[in-house]
Amino acid sequence: MYVGVDYYPEHWERKRWDIDAALMKKAGFNVVRLAEFAWINMEPREQQFEFGWLDEALEILGKNGISAILGTPTAVMPAWVAKKYPETLLLQKDGTRIAWGVRKNNCFSSETYRLLSKKITRAMAEHFSGNPNVIGWQTDNEFGSPSCLCDSCRLEFHAWLEKRYGDIGSLNKAWGNHFWGHLFSDWSEIPIPVDQGVHNPGACLDWKRFNSWLNVRFQKEQLDILRVLCPDHFVTHNFMGLFKDLDYYDLAEDLDFVSWDNYPCWGKPEVRFDASFAADVMRGLKKKNFWIMEQTAGPGGWGAFGRNPHPGEIRNISYQQLAHGADGQIWFRWRTCTAGREQYWHGLLGHDGRPLRRYDEAALTAREYHRLEKEIKDTTVVADVAVIYDYESIWALDIQAGYGGNTFQNAVKRYYNALFRSGTNVDMIRPSDDFSRYKIVIAADLNILEDDVADRLNEFVRKGGILLADCRTGVKDISGLCHARTLPGKLSESLGIEIEEYESIPDDMHFDISGTGGISGSFTSVSYADWVKPLGAKPLAGYRQWHMEKFSAVTRNRYGKGSGWYVGTVVKEEGFYDQLIKNLLDEAGLKQSIIPPAGVEVSIRRGKKKIAFIINHTEEVKTVAVPSGKLELLSGKKTRKKLELGRYGVAVLKL
Amino acid sequence: MYVGVDYYPEHWERKRWDIDAALMKKAGFNVVRLAEFAWINMEPREQQFEFGWLDEALEILGKNGISAILGTPTAVMPAWVAKKYPETLLLQKDGTRIAWGVRKNNCFSSETYRLLSKKITRAMAEHFSGNPNVIGWQTDNEFGSPSCLCDSCRLEFHAWLEKRYGDIGSLNKAWGNHFWGHLFSDWSEIPIPVDQGVHNPGACLDWKRFNSWLNVRFQKEQLDILRVLCPDHFVTHNFMGLFKDLDYYDLAEDLDFVSWDNYPCWGKPEVRFDASFAADVMRGLKKKNFWIMEQTAGPGGWGAFGRNPHPGEIRNISYQQLAHGADGQIWFRWRTCTAGREQYWHGLLGHDGRPLRRYDEAALTAREYHRLEKEIKDTTVVADVAVIYDYESIWALDIQAGYGGNTFQNAVKRYYNALFRSGTNVDMIRPSDDFSRYKIVIAADLNILEDDVADRLNEFVRKGGILLADCRTGVKDISGLCHARTLPGKLSESLGIEIEEYESIPDDMHFDISGTGGISGSFTSVSYADWVKPLGAKPLAGYRQWHMEKFSAVTRNRYGKGSGWYVGTVVKEEGFYDQLIKNLLDEAGLKQSIIPPAGVEVSIRRGKKKIAFIINHTEEVKTVAVPSGKLELLSGKKTRKKLELGRYGVAVLKL
Amino acid sequence: MYVGVDYYPEHWERKRWDIDAALMKKAGFNVVRLAEFAWINMEPREQQFEFGWLDEALEILGKNGISAILGTPTAVMPAWVAKKYPETLLLQKDGTRIAWGVRKNNCFSSETYRLLSKKITRAMAEHFSGNPNVIGWQTDNEFGSPSCLCDSCRLEFHAWLEKRYGDIGSLNKAWGNHFWGHLFSDWSEIPIPVDQGVHNPGACLDWKRFNSWLNVRFQKEQLDILRVLCPDHFVTHNFMGLFKDLDYYDLAEDLDFVSWDNYPCWGKPEVRFDASFAADVMRGLKKKNFWIMEQTAGPGGWGAFGRNPHPGEIRNISYQQLAHGADGQIWFRWRTCTAGREQYWHGLLGHDGRPLRRYDEAALTAREYHRLEKEIKDTTVVADVAVIYDYESIWALDIQAGYGGNTFQNAVKRYYNALFRSGTNVDMIRPSDDFSRYKIVIAADLNILEDDVADRLNEFVRKGGILLADCRTGVKDISGLCHARTLPGKLSESLGIEIEEYESIPDDMHFDISGTGGISGSFTSVSYADWVKPLGAKPLAGYRQWHMEKFSAVTRNRYGKGSGWYVGTVVKEEGFYDQLIKNLLDEAGLKQSIIPPAGVEVSIRRGKKKIAFIINHTEEVKTVAVPSGKLELLSGKKTRKKLELGRYGVAVLKL
Q1: Could you give the C-alpha distances from B429 to B283, B389, B438, in angstroms and in order?
Q2: What is the DSSP string of A485-553?
Q3: Residue of chain A nearest B299, judged by CA positions
Q4: Distance between CA B282 and CA B320 in Å, rounded?
Q5: How far is B336 from B20, CA to CA, in rounded Å?
Q6: Do C119 and C76 contact (CB within 8 A), yes or no?
Q7: Distance of alpha carbon B124 from alpha carbon A498, whole angstroms
């Protein structure tokens, strides 16, 4: 198993390299990522390449048993690029070019920048393809710059639209340009929809798609070179978990596997729901295990830094990812840089370069991973529950939230976190994926719902599946136009309801809802309320507010061999979702072998074996009921009925 | 009486038009507003006009007994205008032209845009002047764009200033350019005062006046065409109630009557003081009844939508306007559009086009209006109390609030809302209006006070009127220069006080005041305190704070046959203003025939008859004491002593 | 002693000048500041100078015994400059030139503007050098505009950098441009670091230095003229107390003495710690007494004004500055202007020009000052405690705070305010100053610590001094690069500790600390925690949080003949700092002759005599224990054991 650090030999004197490599080796590290910001070091003047320093670093590392992943360095253009080719700098909303000097400064439609990118990629690939210490590549770094608004981008947007729509009439229809008299007669009339809060939502949506595509194309141009010149190397990219501006499914498509950068340690210690959610999203991109390319090593921040991972936390953060499918882990960074905007983004070593507590904890973790390697080989997470994770709906809701505070991710989290608390693993899937592998499919806030997806969801239920949908699902078509159907549109079939009206609930209001069978107790409805009219569905909870007394808030409908559940509001209390998820799991006959207490996570990797990771996210000792007689792989001991986990403690059970 | 909807046939397929017209007819609707955003449909290419589609829509509507108001479509320029004449797009503060694609994108000084506006207006007027189904016009839509900062606007500003001041020396004096060494020697040196928070207040004030004038001139150019070509049609504009950036008196001057767009349903249900306030402002613009051109039909919002009007609320909102003088009401919009930035601005019908609850409630209201028509014909609100509503003071205070949070409207509301609670109707008047018609005149925060107005207010009191002024009244002259007189300046005469010093009260402080005769009880003085020294006036309330013990907070002065009241601070408790207003009304001998309980509004329209509207703004049942034996027009029953109003209920009494 | 007002004869008619001068004389005023915004009056057209009006004003004032300080009027360029030389207007981030019409609108690198500045300065100097009523000059007004981002500034920045670093390699090293691949090969590649939150911290730091230098150079160019032409006049500038953007030590260097503008009266009445702090900073700039060039005369504000100084407060504010070394005091302004953006920045007289309460209070104060003059002549504050006040650290922390909310001034205030409460006078010193004069030196948050300063601090302790350092001291070198040493770096020697790790404490967290000897009681640690490992130092307080139990929060180390104290966290409770400061003072053997009760300030000026100012900052009567038998100079009475001070009261004791 690959475990290591992000390393920047160019930050330190040559004589330190040997010390660093020896310390890495001692820690059990066997991989580094290198060079992703080192364009200027590799091409100090245009077309003059210097790789000697990197050859030397690779050699020293190699001698210590450490392999390397190289980054194509296009996330920071050299200063000479900005000076010689100012058109490569992205154009901002105020009409000025961005000031060079941070990172991610480039325009992605610039022919010049794309050419320079291909040249440095080709030069690196040619030089390093035969180096035995190089095992793979990372494209660029954390794709996802702000959009460039230059004429080149606008013209390329026009071309992209013309390719998508064929004729201007189709675009007018797709964007609904009959509204506000916005009909175009020529592509050249189309502006960049600079303000996503006021421009046409359809235009905004396509602008997001176009920008995502610009990034994917940029990466593809590098990949095309690497695949030819380095056929034995893998290629990955360091994704940013729940980042929303790019369609990560598209960006992942051409890669061998996904990697991502995980920084979950900022505020008060808390259960790391989001890092788990992000890990499942990352695994879902290619439906396979992933790497952590940047793992939390210390306090981070550009101006002010955050909390220092407390004793046990570096290991805890790392194990959570292992439990969700991380097959490689690389800590960012090896040593805290004394210079630049990230001089407070702390590594395993501090500015002083001494191997201290954080180094020790990472080394302990690395050594444990090597011991576990045999057991977890060829395992991954296998889930019976799927949550639809869709960038089209993410974007549609960012453009028009519908109700205040609504985002796709917030909606998903209401259900995801309840599943986490129940100890259930989840797959994140696309709307186009096959639902039949799953017992339960959750479509939360799936704002954009194409007819064929609705048909397939109905079919899934008809054949015995359990579908849970919640409010604002199915409002729009693929163009971002509202369906001219009574909500929930085609899903009325499997959900057995109709929604004639709905309303936002202002922040200073709430409605009371209470169970009417199936759900027990009273809860608080906030933010939004569908006035749900059951057409065959059974009401599970109803509103207590005078004007909605005749409507339902939550329903369940038998349809074919399955059932369709609907939650027409946002409920304040977590307990509501816990109860609901429990009902769904019971109906699906899904039982967890280990039920975690509050603050503890359980995630299971399966292959030939079944390995359960039990992770304490709190600073208290926790006791977990587990099956007896199972081998706990870290201690080598067999379990009794109860397992005790210290602060941030981890256990790995062979079930 | 005209009741109807805002309708967009261009949003829907031709075959739907017949269904829509039939449904409108069934609801009792007899008018629609059309085409105000349809420039591109009427002039798809420059100088090529296409009105056939609108002729057809008008014909279908006409067959169903529905007349039409046409909008001049200049609030959205066609895309071809922006492309061909980019100088028509407004220039923003950052030096870029606004990106076409929302609405209100144009520069109002652009000769080109003004010419295009006249051409489309003329073409429409020529085509539709003889159409029997057309009854009137709306100019543009909701005038009040952000200011354009282009050179054309700057040069026109210079010309406007030259016309206003004649010579540069007069401008220097009016703006007080001796301060900070800002004297000009030539008009061309004058910049646009882009930052209203730091530029010279006099320059800022004139910039506001100039921008208001640009809009008025633009409208006038359309009116000049319509008056000639369509002499039988009325012309109106849809104003925005309490919108502050334009001098609405000027904008209304050339119109037949004022219309406005009323959206009072957003947050938690509450008494609609502001919609009442706005209605009175609208009626005051031309001192006559008005129309509602856009009335709340459902939840509204561009990104997130708001609350759905609860059962009874659509009717309640509409009746409130009827009670204040609305002679026509048009719901915005007929059907919720499935496209564009307003796809969540809901109409009477939803996206699905089905006539449901909201349609039913509007239809019920329409039918009631037709029944009431005979009774309310030739009635309007007739008030004994006037509140001075002045755009000069609104602007002066927006430029320099004086004390934190101070706005002209906030100050007026302190008194307006107390009058509302007392069941008293109010007229909104200009400083130049005749005060002698009224028993009470309120000058709240009338920051800009010209000498002749002060003289006329003194005369009004001398002859028996009651004047109430409050703090920061009379601080400035028409140029925005502070009077070099001890406050309250010329009004000292009728108010009998002098104010040598004053202070803002920071948010974390307050002073206590208590009654010293005339006012009873203790109250909290916040935000601002005049150190009022009575010179003949009787102290009604004084400060309890050590350094102001010798000063008054509230005073009353006998002067001639009348009295001058002064409130030198902002009082936190509503009860203070209720008590004060009661005293004023008692002194004026004004008695209300119906005293509304909290949450209930009473407004009376008078003509030969006297019709009282009693409106419950709450979601509780309310009981109102009313004169016995009066006819309640909706039920057709005679009143007893008590009238019961359901949630959002309305009663209409013939007194 | 010079006491007077800021006066603008150009704001008022000629006939008022005599009245004003007579009123000033009556009040005991003997100095005015004139003309600092009157460029347009003195040079209405380029190279045409008109000084007659000012000659006349000076003559009238002179006849009334009033001398004048003249301002070079370059803080507001005339409108003709902006029109004729638009390149003199500063370029903003959005690429537009600032709109002329406020003040401080110029680019400081503009050759044109510098030339115009020199011309008007020379013309004034030539004209007024012989005027007997002129005693001195103020350069410009409140230096410290926003930075200009024009090409001229960028090129001059390059030249400045080249001069500082010599070769581009040295700059690359100093800025740490190996990070993110930011190495330059040519000066011309260097951008302006427009965003101080994301650009390279070293570049940001040098940009701040460069902008400070631009201002200093601009002032120097005026000084060079004034020194030659007006050798008998003093030259000063009106500084802004705790303003942070310029290195005030540099700006003060060429002046005769420092003046500053003091506006401490805004919100709720409170003890004026900051005005005291600022006064000590001002006195520290040249290590000598200073003037107040603008002293609070009434409510101030551009849009909304603030609180009116309550009775006694104008005098109180003024005495506080006298107590800290003010040798001249000038109230801003004489009369409230009726025009312009500062028409609500109230003077001693209101808009009405009547001499009322505020005038009376200032006059009383002026007369007292004249009586005190003999006693305070040649006295100044002499302190045993020094606080290091360093613009480099201020800037470094503004660029990268380290922990949330951290600023250099906030850190200093924790200690400064405790010293204030103890009645101890403080000197503000530079890191390069001689520490040996002091018994205690406080280095709070001294983020940038050069090796030689650390060495000298260690030496100071070794020889018997008491050093108190707190967290984030010594993190960086002069370039803003982090020292590659374990914290506190070289200071480990005198402090006897080592800090291997540290962390920010999020806003919703805190740690408990409690005394372990030396400090008693429990306190709350917020914002930041060093994990302090004593290496010889004695723990005074430790953390109670599980993961830090083994670390110290506060330590004291015997080193040589002195001691080194360290506070490794931010403590919420003031009492902690009071206790700590008491310990330090006790250890240093420093005893205050008068211990002020809460809300009262004591500051002592020494010369041949020792004059104690006792100032009540509250609106309550305060009793202060004082030595018996001392002369109270204002009342002329001898003290008994207790002295009673009324609201805002002041006593001046000859000790």
Answers
A1: 10, 6, 11
A2: SSBTGGGHHHH-EEEEEEEE--TT--EEEEESSSS-SEEEEEEEEEEEEESSPEEEEEE-SGGGTTSEE
A3: A503
A4: 13
A5: 13
A6: no
A7: 43
**What are the residues whose beta carbons fall under 8 Å from the beta carbon of C151, sequence distance 6 or more?**
none
Question: How many DSSP H helices and E strands does chain B contain?
Answer: 17, 28
Q: Is C188 within 8 Å of A352 when comparing Cβ atoms?
A: no
**Residue A314 in contact with residue A358, Cβ under 8 Å?**
yes
Q: What is the pLDDT of residues C266-319, one digit of tens each?
A: 999 999 999 999 999 999 999 999 999 999 999 999 999 999 999 999 999 999
Length of chain C: 655
Phi, psi of A434 (to 5 degrees): -75, 120
Partner A contacted by C145 (CB < 8 A): no
Measure C654 CA to nearest chain B CA, in Å: 31
Record the tokens describing residue B297, joined without a space: 């039909």
| Residue A156 a catalytic site member | no
- Among C78, C80, C338, the residue with its CB nearest the CB of B482 is C338
Q: How far is CA A5 from each of CA A413, C326, C484, C611, rounded to the nearest angstrom?
A: 31, 59, 20, 65
Integer angstrom CA distances of residue C256 from A236, C69, C281: 65, 13, 16
**Domains of chain B listed by start with CATH number:** 2-148+212-377 (3.20.20.80), 385-588 (3.40.50.880), 600-654 (2.60.40.1180)
pLDDT tens digits for range B27-74: 999 999 999 999 999 999 999 999 999 999 999 999 999 999 999 999
Catalytic: A361?
A: no
CB–CB contact A38 C181 (8 Å): yes
Cα gap B108→B121, rounded to integer Å? 16
Cross-chain residue pair C509–A267, CB shorter than 8 Å: yes
* Cross-chain Cβ contact A303/C176 below 8 Å: no
Q: Cα(A574)–Cα(A564) distance, rounded to whole angstroms?
A: 21
- Phi and psi torsions of B583, nearest 5°: -60, -45
Q: For residues A480 and A474, what is the distance between their CA atoms, to the nearest angstrom?
A: 11
Q: Which residues of B are catalytic?
A: 142, 294
ipTM here = 0.96
Report yes or no: C533 and C497 within 8 Å, Cβ to Cβ.
yes
Peptide bond connecting A488 to the previous residue in cis, omega within 30 degrees of 0: yes
CB-nearest partner of B486 from C79, C100, C352: C352
Q: Tokens 């144009």 — which residue? A: B106
> Greatest CA span in chain B, whole angstroms?
78
Parts of chain A with a pLDDT under 70: none
Answer yes or no: do A99 and C486 touch at CB < 8 A: no
Q: Is B45 on the interface with A (CB under 8 A)?
A: yes
**The two structure tokens encoding residue C201:** 């911290």
pLDDT in tens, B4-21: 999 999 999 999 999 999
pLDDT given at position B518:
82
d(CA B446, CA B408): 7
HEC sequence for B104-133? CCECCCCHHHHHHHHHHHHHHHHHHCCCCC
Which two structure tokens, joined as six digits, stand for A204? 């905004």
pLDDT of res. C615: 98
Helix (H/G/I), strand (E/B), else coil: B299? coil
Helices H / strands E in chain C, number of each: 17, 28
**Which chain C residue has the Cα nearest residue B479?**
C339
Q: Which of C158, C161, C182, C532 best probes binding to A when mutated, by most A CB atoms within 10 angstroms?
A: C182
Nearest residue of chain C to residue A102 (CA atoms) = C199
Our CA dihedral for A408, A410, A414, A417, rounded to 10 degrees, sits at 110
Contact B179 C307 (CB under 8 A): no
Tell me if chain B has a CB within 8 Å of the CB of C358.
yes
- What is the sign of the dihedral through the CA atoms of C442, C444, C450 and C451? positive
